[in-house]
């Protein structure tokens, strides 16, 4: 009698690899489901603000806050890189006082332009959900 592993089963119920019908070790491995493809390819670019909005809609408030912070870091990095690139192309060194200051207003403008999502509104909603509506220094009326 042959088991699902491709080995002969002796009449007493024990199997013996010496009585295998195949000589290949790979044939002794049970077939399983094929490996799942990776969920994200290296070319996939996540928009962290959209992920944050979806997390908030699922009541994952701290996750929404985390992804909002990641989005802000990426926006800041992109804005700083754009300023550096502009300074290199003009062959001048400029020190813009506002280059070190990122306000919630400037980041919100960028988020609306980028995704159509207001960063400020999302953050107010997140902070309100976790019971800290005054974290942004804005009084939020209920």
UniProtKB/TrEMBL annotation:
GO molecular function: protein serine/threonine kinase activity
Domain of life: Eukaryota
Positions with biased composition (Low complexity): 11-30
Compositionally biased spans, kind Polar residues: 1-10
BP-aspect Gene Ontology terms: DNA damage response
Region called Disordered, residue ranges: 1-35
Protein name, as recorded: Uncharacterized protein
């Amino acid at each position: 009698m042959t088991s699902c592993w491709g080995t002969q089963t002796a009449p007493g119920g024990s199997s013996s690899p010496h009585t295998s019908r195949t000589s290949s070790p790979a044939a002794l491995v049970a077939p399983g489901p094929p490996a799942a493809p990776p969920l994200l390819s290296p070319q996939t670019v996540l928009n962290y603000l959209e992920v944050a909005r979806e997390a908030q809609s699922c009541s994952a408030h701290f996750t929404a806050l985390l992804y909002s912070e990641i989005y802000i870091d990426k926006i800041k990095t992109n804005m700083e890189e754009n300023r550096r690139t502009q300074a290199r192309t003009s062959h001048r060194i400029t020190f813009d006082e506002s280059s070190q200051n990122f306000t919630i207003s400037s980041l919100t403008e960028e988020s609306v332009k980028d995704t159509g999502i207001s960063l400020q509104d999302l953050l107010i909603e997140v902070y309100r959900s976790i019971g800290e509506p005054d974290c942004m220094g804005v009084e939020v009326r209920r």
